[in-house]
Design brief:
By secondary structure, the chain is α+β, with helices and mostly antiparallel strands. Helix content is about 15%, strand content about 45%. The protein folds into two domains: about 30 residues; about 130 residues, Immunoglobulins (Immunoglobulin-like, Sandwich), CATH 2.60.40. The protein has one helix and eleven strands.
Length: about 170
């Protein structure tokens, strides 16, 4: 029994020689396109970096902290907005007031910037971000659970819960 001409080893080798690199390229393209999706990871900085302070006006509590923001994709990204919520005694989330704060630390020094927006993140990199929010409460708590929501350039939201203690 003689095999047809298209079934000979030479033609079979030519077929796989074309199909092999094509399949590898197709799989690599799939990995690259999946990795291009924006993804940010939020982490609380180790130690006691989140604190509560009494505000300037009566009944105000100021939350201050440092969080770590990591860009876990091959696409550059930026932090576009922050939102803060505190957990009350009924386990409800109450919004807190926040905006970009520039705190003057003294003559000749750079001001500290809290809630910096347009905070750019290079691919596969991380950065520390100083955050701050204000809320009004009737009694001063010893501890407060704060939910930080960070929005990226592509309108995706990422959430981090931290526990802050009175300083």
């Amino acid at each position: 029994m003689r095999l047809p001409a298209w079934w000979s080893w030479w033609y079979l080798w030519s077929f796989f020689k074309f199909l092999g690199p094509f399949a590898v390229s197709f799989v690599a393209l799939g990995f690259v396109l999946c990795d291009r999706r924006a993804h940010i990871e939020l982490k609380a900085k180790r130690g006691d970096w989140c604190v509560l302070n009494a505000g300037f006006k009566g009944g105000e509590i100021v939350f201050s902290g440092v969080i770590e923001i990591y860009n876990a994709s091959s696409r550059a990204n930026a932090v576009r907005d922050y939102q803060f919520f505190r957990q009350d005694s009924a386990n409800e989330w109450v919004p807190m007031e926040s905006e970009q704060y520039n705190l003057d630390t003294g003559y000749g020094k750079e001001p500290e910037v809290h809630n910096k927006t347009a905070l750019t993140l290079a691919p596969y990199s991380g950065i520390e971000a100083k955050v701050q929010a204000i809320t009004k409460m009737k009694t001063k708590p010893y501890e407060l659970v704060v939910k930080i929501v960070v929005y990226d350039l592509f309108e995706k939201s990422y959430t981090l819960k931290v526990k802050a203690a009175m300083k």
